[in-house]
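## retry 2 of 3
previous attempt timed out at serialization; input unchanged, resubmitting
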Amino acid sequence: MRTYAANKVKGSVLPLRGKLDLVMWTKNGAETLPLVLARIAQVVPETIVNKRIMVDDRSSDNTCDIARSFGWAVIFNEGQGISDGANTALRQVETEYFISFEQDLLLAPDWWQKVPAHLSDARAAVASGVRFSYYPPALKKLQEFTAKNYKVEDQEGKFFPYVKTLDNTIYKTSIIRQIGGFPKLSISAGVDHVLAQRVYTAGYGWKVDYAVHSVHLRSGLKDELDHTYWYGGCADALEASLFKKPAQTRALMLRFLFSPVRGLLIALKTLAPEAIYIYPLLRLAFLRGVLDTRKKSA
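## retry succeeded, writing output
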């Protein structure tokens, strides 16, 4: 596992009233959790924290001990997975605003100065930054390139599910409860996307600050490919939740077949030659995840 610097940042006055709660859901997160919790303590001012609530999915490592050592109260997931963990946490929230994190997210040093301020917009229910993998560097550049394209679509004001995450995110509590809390899904992937859809359907917005970059603590390209394969396995269920139909096989195949060309274009634009093979590998991992899951359920 690579090491990451944890720079201290002072708090600032933002348009939030009173204190707020911090929540996280965990399962066997001991490898990254000390660094993650230390960074949160440095970035989010102690003076505004009401409660730190860790919802654990019955970890078999020392995740809970680590959480308690950083002053987090540990409760157990009332169900299983992210959907249940997020809703278990929400039931414990006492404050007008709350922030959610995930166990493998190293919060951007400037997150507190920039992201919560977006909730001064009366129609904004949620705000977050973006996060990129740290290693290998070409993967980070590829993700940054993708995010720039997403930014154009996201700022058109229509529902756009991508780039919405639960790992560096602040919410208006009353609105999240008003729309029924976090969506209950049979999969752990895509809870953020379906929540974003609920937010927009209810007439609110989700602000993404593309200038605030947190770090997704992946151990390398294989870790990212494994995660992409897992996400592909969730794709049909997620697409059905969002759009009432499974992922389109033809579109997935075409994206994979054209991925070498796309990878070359990204490599040229980002000056990252490794993107030539990284992008096709990611598309292949996703496609395999979709097809393998369909085979198992056939």
